[in-house]
């Protein structure tokens, strides 16, 4: 790696957990992406890419929304799809100590790319592993363990409250992706954990598949 003998360095996960002799077997698994840095909190000099592998055929992902929402017993399915997307923001902002800000924007300016639905919030943000987990089809919020942590860490199912949203819509870990591919043909998620300087981006595209 071109490291001089008098230089110090650390090896970390993309969540900035330093690899040590004690945690090596726990954190270093097949396919994991590692950083070689001068210090754990070093600013990354350029963007990095991480490959995400999962087993289902891409049709399972990109067509699931159509099958799910067209089976909604004759109701207009679009509000249900939007509710799934908003649920991510409700969950992310549920522990905010200040204002909870959730914006829904419909973007139709062709000069900025294809039309899109944008959901923006000021929630806790997701680490790279949490974003990875979101990409994996049918990874329930209850089974995301260890370094592959959930964005619902310490999740306790809320009590049902009449006429309110309680962020328990996407119960089995498929709703968000079904909603995305019902509304459109690609998903782009940009997230910065509140306690981190790193910004993580995930793109799922029917065209790329």
UniProtKB/TrEMBL annotation:
SUPFAM superfamilies: ATPase domain of HSP90 chaperone/DNA topoisomerase II/histidine kinase. InterPro entries: HATPase_C_sf, SMCHD1. Pfam families: HATPase_c_3 (PF13589). It comes from the Eukaryota. One of its GO terms (biological process) is double-strand break repair. This is SMHD1 protein. It comes from Melanocharis versteri (Fan-tailed berrypecker).
């Amino acid at each position: 790696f071109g490291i001089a003998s008098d230089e110090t360095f650390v090896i970390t996960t993309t969540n900035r957990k330093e690899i040590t002799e004690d945690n090596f077997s726990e954190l270093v698994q097949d396919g994991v992406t590692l950083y070689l840095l001068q210090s754990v909190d070093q600013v990354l000099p350029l963007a990095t890419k991480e490959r995400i592998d999962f087993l289902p055929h891409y049709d399972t992902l990109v067509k699931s929304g159509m099958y799910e929402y067209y089976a909604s017993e004759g109701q207009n399915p679009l509000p249900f799809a939007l509710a799934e997307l908003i649920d991510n923001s409700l969950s992310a902002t549920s522990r905010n100590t200040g204002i909870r800000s959730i914006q829904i924007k419909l973007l139709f300016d062709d000069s900025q790319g294809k039309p899109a639905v944008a959901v923006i919030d000021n929630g806790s943000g997701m680490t790279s592993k949490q974003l990875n987990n979101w990409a994996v089809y049918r990874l329930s919020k209850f089974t995301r363990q260890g370094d592959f942590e959930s964005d619902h860490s310490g999740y306790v199912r809320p009590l049902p409250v009449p006429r309110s949203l309680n962020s328990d819509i996407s119960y089995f870990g498929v709703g968000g992706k079904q909603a995305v591919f019902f509304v459109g043909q690609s998903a782009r998620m940009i997230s910065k954990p509140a306690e981190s300087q790193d910004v993580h981006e995930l793109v799922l595209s029917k065209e790329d598949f």
